[in-house]
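> Could you send the Serine acetyltransferase prediction when you get a chance?

Sure thing. Input:
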Amino acid sequence: MGHDNSRGLISVIREDVAVNGNLLVAATQMLILYRFGYWIRDHRRARLTRMLGNRLYAALYPYVRNVLGFDIPSTVLLGRRVKFAHQHGVIFHPLAQIGDECLIRHNVTIGVRWEQGKPGLPPPPPRIGARVHVGVNAVILGGVRIGDDAVLGAGTIVTKDVPSGASVVPAASRILRLRAMDDSDREQSAAQRRDSAATFAEADGA
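Output:
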């Protein structure tokens, strides 16, 4: 992943900036801390360097999680040139794997799936290939594999493998019943509109 040395770390961060935007962009700030946290965990680093680096990472992570809205620990295997289109509500399991050049939107959850009656080892996390597009509010659960170039639509819940190049979309919303309005309904609706108009007029007058 290009994190072997400080020069490689800077190169990867430059790619993140090129894809996500300048240092004022929330995703770029998150990625810089993630890359640093991943880099500092390498046991080839000097013991003192790792200790101080881990403390710095731990001190800054709450800002990334609670303010920027990204819960992506440094233990995640995150590929290069991954773009995060928006911030907030992005949660990755600590052992999730995401390939290169993926596109992730907001409110995306990538986690494990605990199944009742199957005790033992923890369930495996998802593995996502390269160039995968993940839509808003998508949820990916369990040890599934998402193939390269797959597209997961907004609101998709994935619990099974998705082959390369496939598109997955949830069922479209549909109207179950259309109730006809009678005279009393129309009068009530008109009264609500009059009340709303009067409230706004009073506010403007104040």
